[in-house]
């Protein structure tokens, strides 16, 4: 089953002069895949990820996720779609420092309002437990270590049971040992829940471990 599909995605930058960064990108991602996106610095990996995540709409071509054609939808429609269908794990965790780990995880689900607040709290606790963070559920996120904060961020990305988890260098700000633990967690999640993961990474060893590694070069996928 296809969870993501693109057709001839083209993207230009216009500063300091017009430059084509993505050239007719055709991509099909199957449900349950663990896909890595690699390439030299500045090749457009993050640009492609922002297009795939619907956060960049200034492109030509078509994007479809979970059977929904997203090209041409307005920002409110896209924001609602992202919250329901896409989980994000960035290089920086973007947790609210004054909120507890549990409260941070609950935020996307409260916005979606698919469950009652009590059910959302229970689901958030279960996601934290899955990632070994339930003992820190009531601790302020600012008091957690970098690795702990990233695990909370992953739990937050999982709270709405998204079709796809997208990560842009999710271990980039972590030390090697902590980064390896986060990657192992992502692999475990992929195998246990069959969630689809797409990661941008500079780590060739990580890319080789993924089910499929795509190289972006000269604006094209190989």
Rounded mean pLDDT score: 89
Low-confidence stretches: none
Q: Specify the helix fraction band.
A: 25-40%
C-alpha end-to-end distance: 22 Å
Per DSSP, the total helix count is 7
CATH class wording: Alpha Beta
Order of helices and strands: EEEHEEHEHHHEHEHEE
CATH-level-2 architecture: 3-Layer(aba) Sandwich
Report the strand count: 10
Question: What report would you give on this structure?
Answer:
There is one protein chain. The chain has one domain (33-58, 74-221): Rossmann fold. The protein has 7 helices and 10 strands. The protein has helices spanning 45-52, 75-85, 101-112, 117-130, 146-158, 176-193, 204-209, and strands at residues 2-13, 19-30, 34-38, 60-65, 68-69, 86-89, 164-168, 196-200, 212-217, 220-221. Helix 3 (101-112) packs across helix 4 (117-130) and helix 5 (146-158) runs parallel beside helix 6.
């Amino acid at each position: 089953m296809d969870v993501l599909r693109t057709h001839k995605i083209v993207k230009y930058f216009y500063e300091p002069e017009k430059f084509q960064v993505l050239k007719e990108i055709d991509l099909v991602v199957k449900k349950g895949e663990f896909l890595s996106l690699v390439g030299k610095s500045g090749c457009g990996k993050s640009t492609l990820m922002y297009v795939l995540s619907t956060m960049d709409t200034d492109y030509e071509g078509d994007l479809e996720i979970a059977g929904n054609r997203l090209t041409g939808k307005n920002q409110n429609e896209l924001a609602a779609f992202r919250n329901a269908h896409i989980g994000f794990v960035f290089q920086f965790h973007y947790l609210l420092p004054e909120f507890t780990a549990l409260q941070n995880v609950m935020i996307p689900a409260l916005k979606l309002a698919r469950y009652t607040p009590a059910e959302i709290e229970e689901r958030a606790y279960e996601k934290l437990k899955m990632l070994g963070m339930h003992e820190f559920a009531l601790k302020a996120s600012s008091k957690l270590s970098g690795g702990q904060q990233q695990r909370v961020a992953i739990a937050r990305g999982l709270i709405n049971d998204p079709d796809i988890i997208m990560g842009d260098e999710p271990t980039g700000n972590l030390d090697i040992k902590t980064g390896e633990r986060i990657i192992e967690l992502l692999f475990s999640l992929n195998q246990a829940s069959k969630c689809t993961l797409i990661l941008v990474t500079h780590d060739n060893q990580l890319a080789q471990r993924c089910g499929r590694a795509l190289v972006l070069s000269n604006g094209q996928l190989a």
